[in-house]
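I have been asked to look over a protein record a colleague put together. The record follows directly below this note.
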Amino acid sequence: MVFSADMIASVRGDSRPEIDVLAAAAARTGAAPSRPEGCSTGRPPDPQRLFDIARLNKMLGWLPMSPAQLPSGCAGLAPKLLQVRLHTAAMNRHAMAVTAEAVTGLRQAGLRHVVLKGPFQQLAVHDNPFFRPSGDIDLYVAPRDRRRAGAVLRNLGFLPLEQDSALWWVPFLGEQHFRRDADGAVIDLHHRLQQAGLPAWQDAERVLDRAGSLSHADVQIPVLSSADGCLLMTVTLAKALLAHEPCGWAAVELTHWLARLDAPERARLDRIAVRSGQERTLALGLALARACDGQGRDGQDKDGPTSEECAAPGIPAAPRGLPMDPDLLRDLVFQPWQREAEAPRRRELLWMLARGRPHVLALEAVRAALSNQVRAMLERRAGKPSMR
């Protein structure tokens, strides 16, 4: 999602009462309370602001459709939420069918691949593929297979998008976008799991070795292992923090995915993070998820990341330099426009995640600078506003 100034304008000002509702609804996997607990401003949630902040954070699917279960004064949202749920179901069913088609084509070509997110990831975490609309299908292949995978997609009727900016998307963001005119389906073909300016995911191809599978329409869909899915959510949170974009959905997803891990799987996550050079990214994601957890803010125990879990062997309790105020961290996730002055700068975030590895720090700083230069050059050439 591209976040325009007009979209953000509707939620300027403090949205903490609305965020409280979202956090509570997601934490309980059920009804939001009639009045959010621990409301920061003392005012009741505004229905339009609640809808907008949920939409920006891709969390409309967490709000109950029953008027009686919505917060006081928000019952009028029920018809809109029902419409959103029906639209999401239709969109995601189509995405699942197209995913099965692409998986079949790639498998027949002998190309290993895995689905990164979308309805199948939601199915793995929530046993429900319709929590969040998925307009794009995200697939990962090994870098050496990128061109062959692209050829498979072309044979299925997909054509590359954004050809004028491919020089930026492919080398710096590690992905290429394809669209099929016949049905409007879009596939994001990834060959990297981290973008320029953040520590690279080392040995990323090993996610293919660890992948699980889900069955859909007699097709086995390769999906990320639980550990890799958790780690990818922390990478997503780091990317959003870098871009100053709202990402409440990712914090919630991480919390719920962590709750499904048993002790051996949790230890496996830590080992994979260390081997992948993402141990500080994991610590960052855990800290953000804990700050956003609706049930964890009152100090009670729950199934989610705790400070003790953050301090597992090889995993720092929190990246050095990360603000420790949970309200600030929560705002940086749900409403980053409210805390622009307090958000970590690009260089600060890179230093935070690459500390102790000067070669990584230097390499990613150079790649980030080149990324900005190439993007600016392409924008000048095309006479377009920023691509990201």
Residues 94-224 form a domain with the Beta Polymerase; domain 2 fold (CATH 3.30.460). DSSP finds 16 helices and seven strands in the chain. Residues 30-38, 296-311 have pLDDT under 50 and may be disordered.
